[in-house]
Amino acid sequence: MHTGLTFRHTMFPAYKMNRLPTPDTIVQSLQYLKPALLAMAIKVIEVPGVEADDVIGTLAISAVTAGMKVRVLSPDKDFFQIISPSLRLLRFVPRGSGIVSFGIEEFSQRFGSLQPSQFIDYLALVGDRVDNIPGVQGIGEKTAVQLIELFGSLEKLVQDRDKVQNKKAREGLLADNGEVLFTKRLVTLRTDLPYHMVPFTLDEFACKKPEDGGEKYMNLINAMGSFVDKSITSSLESRTRDLWSSY
Asked: What is the pTM of this model?
């Protein structure tokens, strides 16, 4: 991950402009999270000018191409576009606890006959309020799915927009001056970042026990015990030791 402006801000200055500043509690927690991950021998990647989603997308697709089964832990719907038989998402349950698996089957239940690769066409039509990305006026979620199912792609839809039967959708598309295709570029995940930007091989992400036997990590866990419930740190220590013993 990396904080600051990215190439999407260069493309679209209003990108994510509606978001509130990151809460201080989260910012403060990062000073403990990164050392903890490093102490556990977990790779931490930061790429200036690139969003974490694009780094994750690049590494995930590289792993799929190498024949691996991939799980991406994220609530971000942008990852819907790279779902495949070999790649599923692990998503936190809204307003609850726990994690659910989201793959091809779940995607089909929600978006009908659309393919995950067509999700960017759908997203370009409906927009994304979370990221301050506008959609096409007059097109909601159901209409967007119907249009992509009918025309096959956003490009074909724009080309034949005068043939759209839904009046509001047709008027919105006819008023478009290229913005919707620009939006598609904006919402498309980068899965092809060059090696000089993400200079890591998949072997470097193999799970392993820290070289110091976990001493730094356990020291961090003990330090956390001064401001969180002892049961949390005890659970972390126990689960981590069990994990290391399996390597």
From this structure: 0.86
